[in-house]
Structure formats: structure tokens, C-alpha cells
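Retry 2 of 3 after timeout on previous attempt. Resubmitting C-alpha cells to design endpoint.
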């Protein structure tokens, strides 16, 4: 075996330029795969955090009727006794806050825009959501005031600044038209674009009175540690609420199916890149080994005439191709590490492109895109790079071994 390894190494060093060119092509493919995979992983993980911290919490309690028609935000399907629900959840290891979500149309000057309006309890809401940490202007809401906080892109689209008055037209729980005259007390610049481009927040007490909710709310948001399995946790919470017919508990994954589907589709992009690495390896290694085999046909014939087994000769070529794969893959991993390190620590700033929602790529990220470390990709890239190189050398070496020994010795 050591003889075969030595022979393979000598053949690699004999054709240094050819070996280097093929290894560089493979290194480029591996590096691009690792860079793209890390970028997609980073965007997905940051999006998940932004969904939990700013949009959905860990899970939500709502009525099944509300869930079925959640896009229209129907107030008639509300939780009638939220206090009883919260009491049933005591000791379950969750933090809760009440919210009322409804559709509204903001009027300001000569402009108007349909938005999602959320009534929140400023005290308990901060135990789950991190909205107050994203204030770009003004202040956060206070209980009982006739104030509103807007997403930054929404405020810019309407030309609204802190201190100005706006009107929100909506319908009450019983279908009557209602208008809310509110003062803009703050503007949010959230890492979640959904919050920035079409969401307004008002005090829950104001929403309760104006919408004739009579203490009912459309949802109760729950928070539990991120290390807990959301599906298992949600199932245990559903058991606790089994005495409340018509209520359901949905995890953030259930509520963000649109994002998860997009993330899965985009992650397929890294698989396409990996497939391209296979193509690079196939073309580069096959071409290199084909040239190496036909340049050494007489040498192969001589080794066979001296009694060297065909299997041993094939293994020598596999080692030679594996050496090219090893060099190229290691170089690709080093380049991938450098690119990923830069992307993890600094990222690429797309703020100018994504400002005011001008570009929507499906992720819940507003500006700076950073990568995440994904060790499995590095291990997989290494194994695939080396194995692919060896596999694609099999056909060229087999062609030479099919020749008769006498024919190989006379080959010019």
C-alpha cells in the first residue's frame, strides 16, 4: 500500500501545473458551496430569532376559528376569558401577554394605507417581545394613552414623524365603523421587516374600549426558553387547555410556515451548488486523469507485464485522483473558513437595497446579512470533494486496463 501511495505522489508531483489547475477548480467549487451554505444558515437562524422576538413569541393561544381566518384578523373570534386561560397555564414554565390584533387603515394628510394594528399591554409585552429595544425615534407606549407606535418604513411611506396626529379607521368587534385619533409617540426600526413596513401598536386598554372587546383578546402570546422543543412544549400546553373548547396553541413554526417554506426552498440552493461541485470534479478530474492515463499507457503496460495486478494499478490512479481531491478540498475549506469568518463577524450590508421594503427576499432580516458556522457542511464538503475526485477517476483508468499488454507496450 505504501508503494502505491508513493507512486501516486510521484505522479502528482510530475505534473504539478495540471494538478494545481484541477485542484484550484475544485477548491473554488468547495469554497463557494461553504460560503453560500453559511450565508443561508445565518439568514435562516437570524430570521427565526426575529420571528420569535418581534413577531410571534414562542407560541400563541387563539381560538380555532380565528386561526382558520387569521389573515383577515377577525375580532369576532376572540378569547372571551383570557384571565382563566393564563391561570390554567400557571406552572407550565411560560410567560404570557395579551394582544388584540385587528386590521385598520391609517389616514394622514392626503394619504392612507392599510396596516396591521396590534393592541399591546406595554408592561407584560416587554417580557416577551423586544420592541422597545428597537426604538429609532420617540418613546414606547404607556398604558391608557391615545398614542401609537409605527414601524419605520410605514412612517416614511406616509411621511409621518413623532408628535403628529393620525387617524386609524377600523371596525369594532360587532362590525361598526370606528375611528381612532392618535398621536405618534414612537417609531420602531426592528430587525424584522414585517414590523417595519406595515405594523402599528396601540395600548391594549385603548383597543379594548374602542373595539368593544369587553376584556376579550384575539391572542395570548407565550414565551418559553428556545432550547425547549417547541412542538413537544406546545403539545403539553394543549393538554393544559383541554378544558377550554375552541382554543388552540400554535408554535412559532406553525405560525411562520410561509417563512419556513421559503427557507427550505432557498437552502436547496446550497444543494445545487454542491451538485455543481460534482460537475467541476467530474470534468476536471476526469480530464486530468484521462490525460495522465493515456500519457502513461506504455508505463501501465510495463507494470502489468512485470506482474502488477490490475486492481493495484487502478488503486494507484484512485490515490492519485484522491490526492488532487485532497489538495483542492483542503484549499477550498481554508478559503471557505476565511469567507465564513468574515461573513459571521461583519456580514454584507444590504440596508440601502432593503430600506422601506424595496426588496423582499423572504427572510426576516432588514439590513446586514451574516453567516453562521455550519460544521456539518465543512465535513460533508471535505468527504464529497475527495470521494468525488476518486470516483470520477475510475472510468479513465479502466479504459487503459482493458487494453492488451502487448498493445499497451506498443502504444505511441
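Retry 2 succeeded. Sequence:
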Amino acid at each position: 500500500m505504501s508503494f502505491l501511495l508513493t507512486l501516486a505522489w510521484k505522479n502528482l508531483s510530475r505534473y504539478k501545473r495540471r494538478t494545481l489547475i484541477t485542484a484550484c477548480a475544485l477548491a473554488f467549487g468547495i469554497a463557494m458551496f461553504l460560503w453560500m451554505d453559511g450565508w443561508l444558515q445565518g439568514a435562516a437562524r437570524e430570521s427565526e430569532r426575529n420571528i420569535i422576538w418581534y413577531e410571534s413569541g414562542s407560541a400563541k393561544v387563539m381560538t380555532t376559528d380565528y386561526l382558520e381566518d387569521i389573515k383577515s384578523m377577525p375580532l369576532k373570534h376572540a378569547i372571551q376569558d383570557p384571565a382563566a386561560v393564563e391561570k390554567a397555564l400557571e406552572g407550565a414554565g411560560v410567560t404570557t401577554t395579551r394582544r388584540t390584533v385587528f386590521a385598520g387603515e391609517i389616514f394622514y394628510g392626503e394619504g392612507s394605507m392599510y396596516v396591521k394594528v396590534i393592541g399591546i399591554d406595554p408592561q407584560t409585552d416587554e417580557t416577551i417581545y423586544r420592541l422597545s429595544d428597537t426604538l429609532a425615534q420617540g418613546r414606547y407606549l404607556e398604558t391608557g394613552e391615545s398614542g401609537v407606535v409605527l414601524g419605520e418604513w410605514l412612517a416614511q411611506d406616509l411621511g409621518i414623524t413623532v408628535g403628529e396626529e393620525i387617524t386609524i379607521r377600523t371596525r369594532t368587534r360587532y362590525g361598526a365603523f370606528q375611528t381612532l385619533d392618535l398621536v405618534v409617540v414612537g417609531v420602531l426600526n426592528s430587525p424584522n421587516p414585517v414590523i417595519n413596513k406595515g405594523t402599528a401598536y396601540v395600548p391594549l386598554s385603548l383597543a379594548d374600549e374602542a373595539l368593544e372587546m369587553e376584556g376579550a383578546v384575539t391572542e395570548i402570546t407565550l414565551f418559553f426558553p428556545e432550547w425547549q422543543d417547541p412542538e413537544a412544549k406546545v403539545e403539553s400546553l394543549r393538554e393544559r387547555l383541554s378544558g377550554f373548547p375552541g382554543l388552540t396553541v400554535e408554535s412559532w413554526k406553525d405560525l411562520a410556515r410561509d417563512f419556513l417554506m421559503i427557507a427550505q426552498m432557498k437552502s436547496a440552493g446550497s444543494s445545487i451548488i454542491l451538485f455543481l461541485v460534482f460537475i467541476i470534479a467530474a470534468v476536471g478530474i476526469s480530464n486530468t486523469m484521462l490525460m495522465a492515463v493515456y500519457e502513461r499507457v506504455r508505463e501501465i503496460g510495463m507494470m502489468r507485464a512485470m506482474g502488477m495486478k490490475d486492481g493495484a494499478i487502478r488503486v494507484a490512479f484512485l490515490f492519485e485522483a484522491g490526492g488532487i481531491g485532497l489538495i483542492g478540498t483542503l484549499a477550498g475549506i481554508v478559503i471557505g473558513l476565511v469567507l465564513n469568518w468574515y461573513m459571521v463577524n461583519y456580514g454584507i450590508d444590504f440596508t440601502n437595497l432593503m430600506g422601506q421594503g424595496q426588496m423582499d427576499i423572504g427572510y426576516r432580516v432588514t439590513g446586514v446579512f451574516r453567516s453562521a458556522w455550519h460544521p456539518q457542511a465543512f465535513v460533508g464538503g471535505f468527504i464529497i470533494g475527495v470521494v468525488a475526485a476518486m470516483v470520477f477517476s475510475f472510468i479513465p483508468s479502466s479504459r487503459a486496463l482493458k487494453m492488451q499488454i502487448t498493445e499497451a507496450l506498443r502504444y505511441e
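Attempt log closed. The radius of gyration is 31 Å.
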